[in-house]
Design brief:
300 residues; 2 domains; D-Maltodextrin-Binding Protein, domain 2; six-stranded mixed beta sheet; 42% helix; globular
Length: 300
């Protein structure tokens, strides 16, 4: 019996529709592996917070979930080895602020509704390292990434993903348009400066009962996702070429910036240092009451 014929039910994947997961998704979206994987999986692309919701409610079997979601969703298992992480500057997770008194003086932060982890990380950083406890005000999904709208009645905003990359490219032009100089704080760099550990934004998590029902083994699923990551990292130039016309803003994000972002800013391996950073994140978030205590990481 072939491996493919042993599949009794396709696994539903909830994926993130931003640039940074593109290397993780390579085999699922490109030949020669695309057709084989399509016999095992079906993919739905959405926003990070919605990935977590779909996995928690059973609408998805596997999801690229924000790290914060693991603490709030019992019974998940982590697919080993793959992550959206950063060893220092990440560029795509920003706290943009107009507060002249720095982070200690912040009173109101517009939270990106697409994110869970970044908003929690921001709260942990501000409370743990700066002694600040500003109010986090969720914005409507259609306002995510619209910096002017997010700052309409707050003195800072959390931006993630492609909107954050676009905001950095627009930084000088916005200052010229408005006459206002904003501060753009890279939250992953802040985390690294204060902890010495990587920032882990998201990882693949699965509902173990769904994996068992699919007819696939945990090793087969893990192999599919790890190989896709490895093949994606080997095809970064193709990813740059695919994504340069997509990130057109305004402003456009140059291909050189996309290349540097994928090669230098995002770390795609859930290694021991990332696990240590993740554990510290869960500990601080629980101590501050921002997240419930996270269960020990359980791997598929």
């Amino acid at each position: 019996m072939s491996v493919t014929s042993s599949v009794t039910r396709k696994l539903r994947i909830s994926a993130i529709q931003y640039l940074n997961p593109a290397p993780l998704m390579w085999d699922f979206e490109h030949a020669p592996e695309q057709n084989r994987l399509a016999e095992r999986y079906e993919i739905h692309a959405t926003l990070p917070a919605q990935c977590a919701d779909e996995l928690a409610t059973g609408r998805a079997d596997i999801g690229l979930v924000p790290a914060a979601a693991y603490a709030a969703t019992p019974g998940l298992a982590v697919i080993p080895g793959c992550a959206i992480a950063s060893l220092d500057h990440v560029r795509s997770i920003l706290l943009v602020m107009r507060q002249p008194n720095g982070m200690r003086g912040l009173r109101c932060i517009a939270a990106d509704p697409a994110s869970r982890s970044s908003n929690v990380y921001a709260q942990v950083i501000l409370r743990k390292f700066y002694g600040a406890a500003p109010e986090f005000v969720p914005r409507a999904t259609n306002l995510a990434g619209n910096l002017d709208a997010m700052l309409a009645d707050c003195d800072a905003a959390v931006l993630i993903g492609d909107p954050a990359l676009l905001a950095l490219e627009d930084r000088a032009a916005r200052a010229n348009r408005t006459g206002e100089q904003l501060e753009y704080i890279d939250l992953a760099h802040e985390w690294k400066q204060h902890t010495g550990l990587p920032w882990v934004s998201a990882f693949w998590a699965a509902r173990p009962e769904a994996i068992r029902a699919s007819g696939l083994s945990a090793a087969e699923v893990t192999g599919d996702f790890q190989r896709s990551r490895d093949h994606g990292m080997a095809h970064l130039e193709e990813i740059v070429a695919e994504w340069t016309p997509r990130l057109i803003g305004p402003p456009a994000v140059p291909s050189a910036v996309i290349r540097a972002y994928l090669k230098n800013n995002i770390h795609y391996t859930l290694d021991d240092n990332c696990l240590a950073g993740l554990g510290l994140f869960y500990r601080y978030a629980a101590e501050l009451g921002v997240l419930p205590p996270a269960p020990p990481l359980r791997f598929l």
